Amino acid sequence: MAFRIIICFYLFLLSPSLSSSLNPPLCNSHDSIALLHFKNSLSLDHSASEECNYFYYYDDNGDTSTIPSKHPSYPKTALWGNDSNCCLWDGITCDSTSGHVIGLDLSCSWLQGQLHPNNSLFRLSHLQALNLAFNNFSGSLILPQFGDLSILVHLNLSCSCFVGEIPPKIAELSKLVSLDLSRNEFYPYDEWLGLRLEPSTWEKLALNMTNLRELVLDHVNMSSIAPSSLSLKLLDILSLEGCKIDGPIPTSFGNLTQLIDLNLAANNFSGDLSFLSNLQSLASLDLSGNYFSGLLPNSIGHLKSLDFLGLQYNEFHGPIPVNFENLTRLTYLDLADNIFSGKLSFLPNMPSLTSLYLSYNYFSSLSSDVFGNLSNLEFLDFSDNKLQGLSNLRRLHLDDNKLQGLPESIFGFLNLSVLSLSSNNLRGPISLHPFSKLQNLEYLDLSNNKFLSLSSNNDVHYTIPNLTLLDLSSCNINDFSKQLGSVQNLKELNLSNNKIHGDIPQWFNNVGNGSLSALYLSHNNLTSVEHLSMRNLFALDLSFNLLQGNLLIPSFGIEATSQSALLLS
Q: 508: closest CA among 519, 497, 522?
């Protein structure tokens, strides 16, 4: 299932009379005292907001990786009180006329500790926006007192270790435009604790919160709730991922015609999807990890604004409907782990695709020009299918794309003689071992992949018997990998414009088993070629290296033919 995390940091566009850093209002004294008491009721611990410091993603191997966040956490309340005017404190928005605090954004603020009913936070009665996301409230309940903040417009309590039943009082916040209670989990002893929403509170919420535009309840336990009519017709975003909901989706969801993002992933939904044809504004639809079955309905093909579509891990079967080709704006498409079959003729109509997952299906026919318009593709997986339409494919060119990994299904095209993957974003180190499956491969071009290198595995027990040309120029190779010894009949090897340094090892003379006739090593950092045999070489390029001293050229080989070339500049 697609790895998606919705993080909302709301902009507090609450009224025309907001505080300005150029002319800040004077903070209301009662609010100032309440804020300081709130600060002192909690401790600060950087681990409470650890999730804010990294962006999580799946790498090319399917493993979770991280990169540093551009907006890391920090303790916003640490300096509260240094200035007497609370309207200047970090995370505070004041009304410019009254000085009352109307906005409190303490997301990612290292807050740790429990909230109690008498907490001074609930004395900030003028609050219109409250964001406490990505902190650690240590298994606190969502207290009924939140419902007393009666003019709240935005409430975000996500990812902050709240547990227990969501109080019915929350459903009385009739002015809410956005509500996010998602991903609250706490692990105090031997079990995960989380939030739970009872049917009566859900019904009250659906009845009272008629102004809602964003409702995010991911991983809230809603297992006791039978899907029923939902009349929140202003909703732009509805996310109920991992809520343990069973049964069919009610057709009344088709009345939510303003929806832009609908996420129902990781539940137990099943049944009819015809209601989707009414949701013409949808840009993102995630139905992954459910029990939908049968033919994919034509209704999905009507959603021409879709940018993201996740249907993986269901039980859909049969061919993709013809009108699927209407989804020309898709950038992300995941059909993996279903029972789809037939042709993929819709793909040329999706030029914006960057991520395409088709694995574990029964697609059996693939036209040879299917990748022709996919110039923006970065991730591609069509492994474990029954592709037969390309069983005779001999030449495959995927140059000048944005591929970051080698599609596994390439190694199922057993008749390939030419494979070119140059000028992509392939990353290493990689092994040449998978290419040994392509026993007919004669030409392999992996050049101009600046992050690609060869693994240093010296245990080579495979061959690529017919490979005669291997181009690894302009990659990120810094040594002579013994994997090159697996290419026994190699005639031409291009390793130019890499970072290879030092001497050429003696074992390298066995590359090609005496058949190597052209070797290109220019633009590296070689310092010696003392061990290089030039016996069968007709072309050797050693230009732009760090060679010193005399180069001994044998009386045969390179000098023995008028058609030979030796470059040493």
A: 519
Q: Are 348 and 324 in contact (CB under 8 A)?
A: no
Asked whether residue 9 carries a pLDDT value surpassing 60, the answer given is: no
Greatest alpha-carbon pair distance for the chain in Å reads: 96
* pLDDT exceeds 90 at position 536: no
Q: How far apart are CA 262 and CA 279, in angstroms?
A: 10
Helices (H) and strands (E) in the chain, counts: 2, 37
**Does 514 or 374 have the greater pLDDT score?**
514
Average pLDDT of 205-231?
91
What is the per-residue pLDDT for 551? 65
What 3 state SS string does 307-370 have? CEEECCCCEEEECCCHHHHHCCCCCEEECCCCEEEEECCCHHHCCCCCEEECCCCEEEECCCCC
Q: What is the C-alpha to C-alpha distance for residues 78 and 43, in angstroms, rounded to an integer?
A: 10
Beta carbons of 205 and 235 less than 8 angstroms apart: no
With the CA atoms of 531, 532, 533 and 536 taken in that order, what torsion angle do they form, in degrees rounded to the nearest 10?
A: 170
Is residue 264 within 8 A of residue 288, CB to CB? The reply is no
Specify which residues 248 forms β-bridges with. Answer: 270
Token pair for 563: 């058609």
Q: What residues contact residue 63 under an 8 Å CB cut-off, 6+ apart? A: none
d(CA 407, CA 383): 7
More confident residue, 227 or 220: 220
Beta-strand ranges (E) seen in 349-456 are 355-357, 362-365, 379-381, 395-397, 418-420, 443-445
Return the closest-CA partner of residue 118 out of 23, 38, 26.
Answer: 38
pLDDT over 70 percentage in the chain: 87
Residue-wise pLDDT for 30-89, tens only, equals: 999 999 999 999 999 999 999 999 887 655 445 566 788 888 999 999 999 999 999 999
pLDDT band at 410 (very low <50, low <70, confident <90, very high): confident
Token pair in block for residue 106: 């303490």
Helical ranges in 125-275 per DSSP H: 199-208
Provide mean pLDDT across the span 16-26: 60
C-beta atoms surrounding 42 within 10 Å: 23
Q: What single DSSP character describes residue 514?
A: G
Token pair listed for 168: 């019915």
**Residue 396: per-residue pLDDT:** 82
Three-state secondary structure readout of 489-512? CCCEEECCCCCCEEECCHHHHHHH
Can you tell me the distance from the alpha carbon of 175 to that of 180, in angstroms, rounded to the nearest whole number? 14
Least confident of 229-243, 280-294, 352-366, 368-382: 368-382
Domains and CATH numbers, the chain: 391-569 (3.80.10.10)
CA nearest neighbour of 48 among 111, 5, 116, 126: 111
